[in-house]
Amino acid sequence: MSASKKIKLEEKTSVCGFIQHVSPIKTSRTNNKYFNATVQVQRDTFKKVACFDVMKHSTLVEASQARTPLKLTDVQIVPSRLDSAKTEVLVNYKSRVEVSRQLSFSYQKSTEDDHDSAGEKFKTLKEVQNTPEFNKVAVEVKILSAKEVSVQIVRELPIQKQEVIVGDSTATMKLTLWDEMVTKLEIGKSYRLNQLSTRLFQNVKTITATKATSIESIDDLVNCLQAPEDNDVIEKEGKITQVGLVMHFSCEMCKGKVALPDDDSKFIRCPTCKMKMAKQTLQKSMNGTLCFSYGNQKVKLSIFSSTLFTMCIANHLSVDNAENIEDFLLSNSFRVAYSNETKNVQNIVHLTNVAGVNQ
Ligand SMILES: [Zn+2]
C-alpha cells in the first residue's frame, strides 16, 4: 500500500448508523483488549467495527439492544482484516460515541453474511441454553476442560467421542466432539465453532459437533466463567461381583427401539416409523447394572454404551456379545470412576492394562 493511500485511509472521519451484533470483549495476540460489532450505515449497507476501547462496550451493547442511532466521531476507516476488498471502522479511546439525530434510513437487522465471514450468527452460551433442541448454533468460546476420549458404535463402526466444557462470559456448557474433531481443541484456547447443534440430555442443554462443524482459532476470550468443579467423581480399584448387560437396537431414522429377530433376514421394519431398513444400519447400544466392590464397600452402579464400548475396544473384546462382556467384567479387577450423585460409571479400566500399576 502506498504511503499516500495509507494516510488517506487513516483519516479521521465519522460514521452514523445502528450498531448491531456487539461481540464479547476479546484479547488480541498482541495482548490488546477489543471487541467487534457491525454498524448499519445505509438502508442496506453494513460495516464491521473493531473497537479497541473496551470502556465503550456497555454503551454499544445498550445502543444495539435499544436500536439507538449513534454517531461515532474520530474513527478510522481501514481495510478489513478479513476481506481486503471491504473496509472496517476502527474505534479507539479517542473516538467519541454520541446519540445521532434522526437517520435517513430505518433500522434493519444485518443479514448473516454482513456481520460474519463464516455466514452464521454466533450466540452467547446463555442464548444457546435458551435455544430449543436440534438447532444449529455458532459460538465463540474458550475450552475450559476436557474428558478422556471414549468410543461409541454407530453403524457397526467405532467412533471417537470427547466431551469438553466450554465457556464464555455468560455461561459454561458441555460440548460433544466426534472423530477427527476429538483432541483438535486445546484447553485454555479460544475458538469460534460454527454449525454446532443443540441437544437436551437429562434436562440439561448441551451442544454437539456435527459433520458440518468448522473450527477457527480466535483471540483469547476474557472474563470467561470457570468450569464447574467435578468433585462428584469417585475413582476406586476393585472387583465387579454382579453384572447384567442388555443390548438394544434403535432405528436411525426415528430413534425408536427395534427388537432384533433371531432369524437371518437381512432387513427389518421399524415398529415406530414403519420404515424398512438393513439390519446393520440399526444403532447399537448396551447398558446395564453392576455391583462394584472395593475395600469393604459395595456400590450398585449403572453403565452405558459409550463407557462399555470404550472398555471393549481397549481390551479387544467384541461389542456384539453381552454375555462375553459380562464374563470379562466378572473375571478381572478394574479401576472404576463413577458419579456419586447419579451412580453412573464414567470410566472403567482393566487393571492389568494400566501401565505402572503395582499390585
Ligand atoms: Zn424408525
Number of strands: 23
What gross morphology would you assign?
elongated
Distance between the termini: 69 Å
Number of helices: 6
For the record, the count of structural domains works out to: 3
Radius of gyration: 27 Å
Could you report the average pLDDT, rounded to the nearest whole number?
85
Query: Approximately how much helix is present in the residues?
Result: 10-25%
Q: Which molecules other than protein and nucleic acid are bound?
A: zinc ion
Low-confidence stretches: 1-9, 113-119
Strand content: over 45%
Explain the overall architecture.
The chain has helices spanning 3-9, 57-66, 112-115, 125-129, 305-314, 322-331, and strands spanning 12-20, 26-27, 33-40, 46-51, 69-79, 87-91, 96-99, 122-123, 136-146, 150-154, 157-167, 172-178, 190-201, 204-217, 220-221, 233-250, 257-258, 267-269, 276-278, 283-294, 297-303, 333-339, 345-350. It is mainly beta. It has three domains: 12-104, Nucleic acid-binding proteins (OB fold (Dihydrolipoamide Acetyltransferase, E2P)), CATH 2.40.50; 122-221, OB fold (Dihydrolipoamide Acetyltransferase, E2P), CATH 2.40.50.140; 233-353, no CATH class. It starts with a helix and ends in a 9-residue tail after the last strand. Zinc ion is lined by residues 251, 253-254, 256, 270, 272-273, 275.
